[in-house]
């Protein structure tokens, strides 16, 4: 005790003003002399957690718990340390284990509730991703972020997951914003830069997408992911100079057959001769040709695949880009066209 008294005075003086760095040296000196002093070791672990020295916090709490597995303060601190490391589920198990010994422990109950809220949002987001419900996943990841906006381990992980979910949902503007924010905080992350490139493609920023993948290629020149992304961005840039059938029908590129058919029918009804003033019929005929051409390609799996790959597509014997065949004389309304066994015809009454 005589040897330690001087160091204890220094430690306590530093801790009174919240100076964990100043208390570190005296605490180390004390533990060199009295290694089994659980009180000092707990103080050092608490300071280590505050200063981000998570390895020391883990070692000290393990040392305490190997000698007294029912030390609830050490259990709580160890759970906090796991949580700060990003091991959210392990942290919850630590808190639950302590609560089994003392269900009324206020500190453990409070931390368990807080961490459980974050964990539930993260799990929900992951489940939505597995179910291809990407917009819902992005919303859950954002909720988790809002609960712990400055968490050192979970924040970058959740930002990347939200970025990925918005890219998959083809939410162009939101995806670009989310991915750019994530990359700004982790600019060495090549996958994030690729995701930003994908987001720019979804937002029809093709030249910017090419540049993002070129930057990624400088970071990882041998990456297959980067190479494929760059090729896709260049192809989409080239394709952007042709007719955009998805934009013509007003659907996303991942639209299924039912969504494409619904969009076509809606536009076709809008262009119905009964609804088109005489002075707009010529323009309506041109639009009908265009949506018919788009529908013919996108409703055909083989043609759509070629179009998506940037290959030339034959439309009723004509290369893509030459208009829809068949003529639309207005003497009897828009002539119909046939696709998949169905004939679409509008007639004036």
Task: Describe, in short, the structure shown.
This protein is mainly α and 349 residues long. It has helices at residues 2-16, 20-33, 38-51, 54-67, 72-84, 88-101, 106-130, 134-147, 154-168, 172-185, 190-202, 206-219, 224-239, 245-249, 257-270, 281-298, 301-308; strands at 314-315, 318-319, 337-339, 342-344.
Order of helices and strands: HHHHHHHHHHHHHHHHHEEEE
- Strands of the widest sheet, in order across it, are 1-2
| Class derived from helix and strand content | mainly alpha
From the N-terminal CA to the C-terminal CA, the straight-line distance is: 106 Å
Main β-sheet: number of strands, strand sense, barrel status? Answer: 2 strands, antiparallel
- The fraction of residues in strands falls at under 5%
State the total count of DSSP E strands: 4
Question: How does this structure look, described?
Answer:
The protein is an all-alpha fold. The chain is built from 17 helices and four strands. The protein has helices spanning about 1-15, 20-35, 40-50, 55-65, 70-85, 90-100, 105-130, 135-145, 155-170, 170-185, 190-200, 205-220, 225-240, 245-250, 255-270, 280-300, 300-310; strands at about 315, 320, 335-340, 340-345. A two-stranded antiparallel sheet has the order 1-2. Strands 3-4 form a two-stranded antiparallel ribbon. A hairpin with a 2-residue loop joins strand 3 (about 335-340) and strand 4 (about 340-345). The chain is elongated and about 105 Å long. The termini are far apart. The model is unreliable at about 315-349 (pLDDT under 50).
């Amino acid at each position: 005790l005589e040897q330690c008294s001087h160091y204890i005075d220094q430690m306590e003086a530093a801790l009174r003003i919240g100076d964990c760095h100043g208390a570190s040296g005296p605490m180390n000196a004390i533990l060199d002399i009295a290694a089994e002093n659980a009180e000092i070791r707990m103080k050092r672990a608490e300071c280590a957690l505050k200063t981000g020295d998570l390895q020391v916090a883990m070692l000290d709490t393990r040392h305490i718990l190997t000698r007294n597995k029912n030390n609830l303060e050490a259990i709580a601190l160890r759970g906090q340390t796991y949580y700060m490391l990003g091991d959210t589920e392990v942290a919850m198990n630590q808190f639950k284990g302590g609560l089994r010994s003392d269900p009324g422990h206020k500190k453990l109950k409070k931390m368990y509730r807080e961490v459980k809220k974050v964990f539930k949002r993260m799990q929900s987001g992951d489940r939505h991703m597995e179910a291809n419900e990407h917009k819902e996943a992005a919303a859950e990841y954002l909720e988790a972020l809002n609960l712990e906006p400055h968490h050192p381990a979970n924040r970058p992980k959740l930002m990347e997951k939200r970025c990925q979910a918005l890219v998959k949902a083809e939410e162009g503007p939101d995806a670009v914003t989310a991915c750019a924010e994530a990359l700004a905080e982790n600019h060495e992350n090549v996958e994030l830069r690729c995701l930003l490139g994908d987001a720019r493609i979804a937002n029809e920023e093709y030249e910017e997408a090419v540049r993002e993948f070129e930057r990624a290629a400088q970071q990882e020149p041998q990456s297959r992911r980067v190479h494929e992304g760059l090729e896709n961005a260049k192809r989409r840039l080239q394709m952007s100079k042709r007719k955009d059938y998805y934009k013509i029908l007003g659907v996303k590129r991942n639209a299924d057959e039912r969504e494409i058919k619904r969009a076509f029918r809606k536009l076709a009804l809008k262009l119905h001769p009964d609804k088109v003033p005489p002075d707009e019929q010529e323009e309506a005929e041109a639009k009908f040709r265009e949506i018919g051409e788009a529908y013919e390609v996108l409703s055909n799996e083989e043609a759509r695949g070629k179009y998506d790959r940037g290959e030339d597509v034959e439309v009723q014997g004509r290369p893509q880009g030459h208009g829809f065949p068949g003529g639309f004389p207005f003497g009897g309304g828009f002539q119909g066209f046939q696709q998949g066994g169905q004939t679409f015809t509008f007639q004036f009454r």
